[in-house]
Design goal:
4 domains, Leucine-rich repeat, LRR (right-handed beta-alpha superhelix), SH3 type barrels, 526 residues, alpha/beta, five-stranded mixed β-sheet
């Protein structure tokens, strides 16, 4: 690092005292003598001004306090690709000869052999997955150097380097005919006027990471013609706030990550709805609170996001169940991650919130990375059916099909409820009864316990708290009847609904959830 600077220094990336910056000015800054570099720091807090000194504007920064003047001798303009590669991957010359000796570990003597590394170039040619993160790579170097030294690279990490333009990246990629995965995160890349002319460098590129690159969505669309077969695009932590529909570009994307970009609203996502093969969308911490697939009504499947299978919406501002209702319109959605949203934080019981989501989205297979088993789905749907049974009746629902006319407001809030009634049947009057107010006299239930398939066993009478969960009831009966608890199946018959048997199938629910009352019969099978 001397006082001289490269001829194309303006726009170059540098490191200075361990911090990254972009050069925006080269020249004198009177009244001082000598050459200065005007730079904008990646971390604005490192700067002091906006490129103005004693009333003269030498350059301008995006951040009004992000600029500084530094001497060229303090700036590192980086190295070429092959220099960085050999610095990281070639053994120290002192170890290039066969070495044999003894290594003492504790009290044991271990034979030590350092293998010969004489054929460095041969070894480099075998590399297909390398990382040059934080290696100050700024350019491709001499023409064809890369293709001669390491032509077989398929996965390349160039994140957090000193690359300043897509032309420089193209010079590297053109020499890597097998390149499929590329990480350019935390670089600041100027966009060429004709991005399509660079597409030949990325003809096989399938996975691209551009996180922390200060990109807006219009800039992404300008770059997109360079990536004709791209399948995965990672754009976390950029400056993306407003989306536009990709026309003629990004049509091969199966995965898109927009996490940590502050979208102005959830309706922005509709601009991506026609990507023809998109399967996974990640919008974690984007600030979205609403979503609408307005091409169809509730109970129908949307043509939007027609191939989407995996959706991650963690850490957003989702507070309405209408958002979850909309997701049931997606015809292929199988996996949803929806943690750390106000919607769930407002629910006193996270298990209840999970059941509500499962009941509201018919075809969901995984929720928050946990598989939804058939038994859990059935339990969630039955609980949902009972939980909103009284609201259904109040809104005009009726067991008689001719009288069943629930209001539109109810159907908007509970679009799957009519299907659940059709699937499991309308609720009996006894299932619709309100829970009695909590009082000391109704804390204990006197229950008759019978084993209908074991008539030789005498019935038992037990007093149990109505807050006791089904799981704990099973544990008690396991001890009383001396049978394995995992094999027990419980149901109950109400004295008010003779001949009607109701399964107690959710182990996490208390007896009061099923409206069990004193005098009822608990039926035990195994």
């Amino acid at each position: 690092m001397g006082d001289s600077v490269p001829c194309n220094a303006i726009g170059s990336r540098i490191t200075c005292d361990g911090e990254y910056a972009t050069v925006l000015y080269v020249g004198n800054v009177p009244p001082t003598t000598g050459l200065w570099l005007g730079v904008e720091w990646d971390k604005p807090q490192r700067g002091k001004h906006n490129g103005c000194h004693e009333g003269v504007q030498y350059f301008k920064c995006d951040n009004p306090l992000g600029g500084s003047f530094v001497r060229p001798k303090k700036a590192n303009f980086g190295v070429d690709f092959v220099t960085a590669l050999k610095s990281r991957y070639v053994f120290n010359s002192k170890l290039s000869e066969n070495t044999k000796g003894d290594l003492i570990i504790g009290k044991k003597k271990v034979e030590l052999i350092v293998l010969e590394f004489a054929e460095e170039e041969s070894q480099l040619r075998k590399l297909n997955n390398i990382s040059l993160r934080d290696c100050n790579v700024s350019n491709a170097g001499e023409r064809e150097d890369i293709s001669k030294v390491c032509p077989n690279i398929a996965a390349l990490n160039l994140s957090h380097n000193l690359l300043s333009s897509w032309d420089a990246v193209s010079d590297i990629a053109l020499q890597l005919k097998h390149l499929e995965t590329l990480d350019l995160s935390a670089n600041r890349l100027r966009i060429p006027s004709d991005t399509g002319s660079l597409s030949g460098a990325f003809m096989n590129l399938k996975v691209l990471s551009l996180s922390h690159a200060r990109l807006t969505w219009p800039k992404v669309l300008l770059c997109a013609p360079m990536w004709p077969v791209l399948e995965e695009l990672h754009l976390a932590s950029n400056d993306i706030t407003v989306l536009e529909r990709p026309v003629g570009v990004l049509q091969t994307l199966t995965l898109l990550d927009l996490s940590n970009n502050k979208l102005v609203d959830g309706n922005q996502l509709a601009e991506l709805a026609n990507l023809p093969v998109l399967e996974k969308l990640t919008v974690i911490n984007t600030g979205i609170s609403s979503l609408c697939f307005d091409d169809v009504g509730f109970g129908s499947k949307s043509t939007m996001f027609s191939t989407l299978k995996y959706l991650s919406i963690d850490k957003n501002n989702i507070s309405q169940w209408l958002f979850i209702n909309e997701l049931d319109k997606l015809k292929c959605l199988q996996s949803l991650s929806c943690q750390n949203n106000p919607l769930l934080e407002n629910e006193s019981n996270l298990e209840t919130a999970r059941q509500l989501i499962i009941a509201k989205i018919a075809d969901l297979k995984f929720l928050n990375k946990t598989e939804i088993l058939p038994e859990e789905r059935k339990g969630a749907e039955l609980d949902y059916r009972k939980m909103f049974g009284n609201a259904w009746v109040t809104a005009g629902g009726n067991r008689d099909p001719e009288l069943n006319r629930p209001s539109q407001a109810f159907l908007v809030e509970h679009p799957r409820y009519p299907y659940l009634i059709q699937k499991y049947g309308a609720l009996e009057d006894g299932e619709l009864k309100q829970q009695q107010p909590f009082a000391l006299k109704n804390q204990l239930l006197t229950l008759n316990i019978r084993c209908p398939e074991q008539p030789e066993r005498k019935p038992l009478v037990k007093k149990l708290p109505d807050s006791m969960t089904i799981q704990k009831v099973k544990g008690l009966l396991c001890r009383l009847l001396k049978v394995p608890g995992s094999e027990l199946r419980l149901s109950y018959e109400s004295t008010k609904m003779e001949g009607v048997e109701i399964e107690l199938e959710n182990d996490l629910k208390p007896l009061q959830f099923y409206c069990v009352e004193s005098g009822d019969y608990i039926l035990v099978r195994w």
